[in-house]
Amino acid sequence: MEVIVLGSAAGGGFPQWNCNAPTSKAAREGAGGAQQRTQASIAVSADGENWLLVNASPDLRQQLLQNRAFWPRQGLRDSPIKAVLLTSAEIDHVAGLLSMRESQPFRLWATSSVLGILAENPIFGALAPDYVERSAFPLGDPIKIAGASGDLGLVIEAFPVPGKVPLFLESRHVGDLAGGVEDTIGLEIRSGAARFHFIPGCARLTPALRERLRGSPLIFFDGTLWSDTELVDLGISAKTGARMGHMSISGADGTMAAFEGLAIGRKVFIHVNTTNPVLDEASLEHAATVAAGWEVAQDGMRISL
Ligand code: MLT
Ligand code: MN
Asked: What residue's CA is closest to ligand 1, atom 3?
């Protein structure tokens, strides 16, 4: 099984268009170890030819152009991407669907809750049903992922993770932003004996989630913020990580501490926010994540399992 990281930054990318925090400034100016990143998405393939896209970021077009594996190969219209699967309905996970509207067959997989949010937004009607079949999957059962032209040789098991309703729907859920079990999910993706976990957004590592992830050969996990008060401390926003539905990397309740003792083969932070100091490879925070056995995903990173 092959995994390609198309994008590794959180919503808005790195640097975000209007962010002038030190990390964003350094990335914009090409200074030192702060490498620019597009919004989080991965592609997975069992055969190296046919790909499942996991989340369609607003940067999709640029991401596909930068990776030869996703260029058309035959005929006048073609794409190696045979299916798309969504882990939430956040803008940074779904907006790329709008760039996939050029009469190209593929299968769109998501929970019924996420498909419901797309269905009530007429702009996604640009993905005509003649070409794009939408398939809901349940949580907790292994699902064989079919693409436009048959089985992709990938099996996914989706599970709920603590999260939040999409930012653009918060006004509908005032008082309870956590959302339902189908709104934010994690994935185990398997091909034969190879497997890994993908959880780009997670508000808390519950005991059940810890046990599910124990011994995983590879995990991509929510690396949005370094600290819960990062945006508050920078004076950028009053929102904490908890309010945004993201646990933070550092601290006693943070991700590095929560993953201790889980015997995970390879741990990679993805969906990293434009303010997060781990994005600067020369920072103490980056050194601390590496010392704790974590990597920070970069666009174009490729992993064979
Ligand atoms: C998030 O992960 O919290 C969202 O993508 C926020 C956003 O849409 O800006
Ligand atoms: Mn996001």
From this structure: 244
pTM value is 0.98
Phi/psi zone of residue 75: left (φ > 0), alpha (ψ -120 to 50 degrees), beta? left
User: What does the pLDDT read at residue 106?
Assistant: 98
We report the CATH number of the domain holding residue 94 as 3.60.15.10
Nearest to 197 by CA among 213, 214, 181: 213
Q: How far, in Å, from the CA of 271 to the mean position of ligand 1?
A: 10
Ranges of residues in the chain with a pLDDT under 50 are none
Q: How many domains does the chain have?
A: 1
Is any atom of ligand 1 closer than 6 Å to the C-beta of 280?
A: no
Please give the distance, rounded to the nearest whole angstrom, from the Cα atom of residue 95 to the centre of ligand 2: 11
Residue with CA closest to ligand 1 atom 1: 11
Domain containing residue 112: 2-304
| 167 CB near ligand 1 (under 6 Å) | yes
pLDDT of the residue at 144 = 98
Quick one: CA torsion of 108, 2, 11, 148, rounded to 10 degrees? -10
Cα-based angle 210, 214, 218 (whole degrees, multiple of 5): 110
Residue 261 is encoded by which pair of tokens? Answer: 């003792």
